[in-house]
Structures are given as C-alpha cells and as structure tokens.
Amino acid sequence: MKTAFKDIQIVSRLGADERTLAFDVLDGLTRPFKEIPPKHFYDTEGSRLFEQIMSLPEYYPTRTERSILESHASALVEETQAAELVELGSGVPTKTLLLLDAMRDAGTLERYVPFDVSEVVLLESAKLLVERYPGIRVYGVVGDFERHLDALPEPEGPRVIVFLGGTIGNFLPGTRRKFLRGLAGALRPQDRLLLGTDLVKDPAVLEAAYNDAAGVTAAFNRNMLAVLNRELDADFDLDGFDHVARYDRDEERMDIRLRSLADQRVRLEGIDLEVEFAAGEELRTEISTKFTRERLEAVYAEAGLAMSGWFTGLCVPRLFL
Ligand code: AVJ
C-alpha cells in the first residue's frame, strides 16, 4: 500500500511478476482458432490510438455516451444520492467528470474509487481530481477488474459503480456472466451499476465505426503485434496482416481480426514459441458486442441484477450528417 498525497490512497493488486500477456499469447496462439484478448491493445501507443479512435467521425459511441451522461447525470445523482463513484477501467477521467460534477453540485460527493491497470494513470487522475473537487478522497485500485474486484474498499455511503465506454462488449457470454455476478455481489440494495453499452444498429453504421477511412482502427489493431514484438521479443511483420472488422449478425457483435496476407512463420523468443499462419488465416483480437434492451435485461437477470433505468442517445456518425 502506498500513500502519495493526503486524500489520495492507491493500492495495487498487480505484482511485478504478472505474466498475463505471456500466458494469454501462448494460450491464444496455440489454438486451432487463434485469438488474443483485447486488453493487450493498450500500451502507450495503443492508448494514444484509442484516444484518436474516440474522436473519429465514424466512431459514434464516445460522443453518444457523453451526451447521454450530459442529459442524465444530475437525475442519476438525485435518484441514487451517490456519495462514492467506483469506476472500472477508469483511464483518464473525462466523461466521469460529468458524474462527479453532478455529485459535487448535489453536495453528495465524498469519494472516487478508480480501478485501472495503470498506476501512473491512476495517480495522475487522482491528482487532477483532488484539485478539481476540494475535499474529495480518492482510493485508487491498480488491478485487473476481471480478477481483483475483491480489492474494492468497503463502501462508505451510497455507491454507484460505473463501467463505461462499452467495454462490457469485449466479454464473451460466459466471462461476462461471471464478471457481472461478481459486480452484483459487490452491490448493496441502495447501490447501482451504471453500464455503458453500444446498441444493435444498422450493420453499415457499425462496420464503418470499426473501419474508419483514416485507418486509425487498423493501426490500433496492428499495434497489438507491436506489443508482442516488444514484450515477447517476437518478429511479427505488421505489414503482413490486414485489419478485418465485420459485424456478426447472429451473435450481434463486431468481430475484429488480423488476417495473414501470406503463409508465414513467426518466432516469439520471449515465450519460446514458433507459430505458423496460413495465407488468409485470421487472428481474432476483439469482439465488441452490441445489445438490445431485451438482451441486456436477460444478461442482467442471469447475473442476479435487475434493470432500474435505461437511457439512450441518438447515434449519428458525423459522416452521415
Ligand atoms: C473500448 C471495447 C468499447 O469495442 O468499440 C474501438 C474498442 N476497438 N475500435 C469498442 C475499439 C476498435 C472499444 N471498446
């Protein structure tokens, strides 16, 4: 446990010996259908590219979610009387400020509990927030929210857990249920979960959002190979793979992959592995599930949650305006 500033406390659940990437890659590249989980996109360069994605004309989710929060933050605070905000995968708080502002204005704000894999990001946002909200306490948790939810502190007042940005869409159904059940277990009757999800819509709109004209999403996708090259001493040729993002109508999710342009062999020195890719073979790097209200209610029900509110925004990709 480290305390850097009065009012700021950061606890870490990530050990220096985390080998998650190595395990995920060894596991994911030795299966008949190759797959690496999307959490490995986000090194410094990946986070920078994702920041760019969020302001792309085709990528409507970020600005749609922001407008929803702008419209409903004060009503949410009014209804929940939230004294503390727990944010999963907090990153650099931007949209969160809308909620924290509403809590400050209502006079309920006491504590912000950001949960993120990056200690640097947590400390930076904590410093920013204690300046912006005099009297607020920040309790940051460095960890992986799929494994370390038990590191959350005891609630000190009505709590809202927020999980924004549509990241829930990255989970396969089984993991999603396990994760939501974990959250359900952390919520008392007076607490609430605020979940940001993208919705099923015209596949053309969806596919455009993940195949932007400027090629930022393609660069973001390929950057995962750069992460492997650096962290696992691998020799992926980034130009040897195409970015592929298709909407799967049966599963109601975007399916994002890297397609090998030729037969090739890749060596990953760091995990002592050689893998072959056939020409046209695909490596899945992400799924991004799109929901309907009915689907979400069913997903909540199987996790022991009940929907108490539903807010939508108009998704209009700037391209089509
Ligand atoms: C951060 C998972 C919500 O699924 O839209 C954006 C990630 N990938 N473009 C999404 C992403 C490609 C994003 N999430």
Keywords:
seven-stranded mixed sheet; alpha/beta; binds N,N,N-trimethyl-histidine; 321 residues
Task: Please describe what this structure looks like.
- The strands form three sheets. This protein has a seven-stranded mixed beta sheet with strand order 1-2-5-4-3-6-7, covered by helices on one side.
- It is α/β, with parallel strands linked by helices and 321 residues long.
- It is globular.
- It has nine helices and twelve strands.
- Strand 4 (111-116), helix 5 and strand 5 (137-142) form a beta-alpha-beta unit.
- The relative contact order is 0.17.
- The chain is 35% helix and 21% strand.
- The chain binds N,N,N-trimethyl-histidine (AVJ).
- The site of N,N,N-trimethyl-histidine has 11 residues, from strand 12.
